[in-house]
Amino acid sequence: MKLVSYKTEDREHLGVFVNGHIYNLNSCDKLIPDNMNEFLQGGEVLMERAKRIDDQIKEGSREAKEEIFYEILAPVPHPTSCRDGYAFRQHVAAARRNRKVDMIPQFDEYPIFYFTNHNAIQGTGEIECMPDHFDKLDFELELAVVIGKKGRNIKAAEADEYIAGYMIMNDMSARTLQMEEMLLNLGPAKGKDFSTVIGPWLVTPDELIQYKVAPREGHVGNVYDLKMTCRVNGIEVSKGNAADMDWTFAEIIERCAYGVDILPGDVIGSGTVGTGCFLELNGTGLLNDPNYKVQWLQPGDVVEMEITGLGALTNTITKADTDFSILALKKK
Question: What are the backbone angles phi and psi of residue 282, rounded to the nearest 5°?
Answer without folding.
Answer: -65, -45
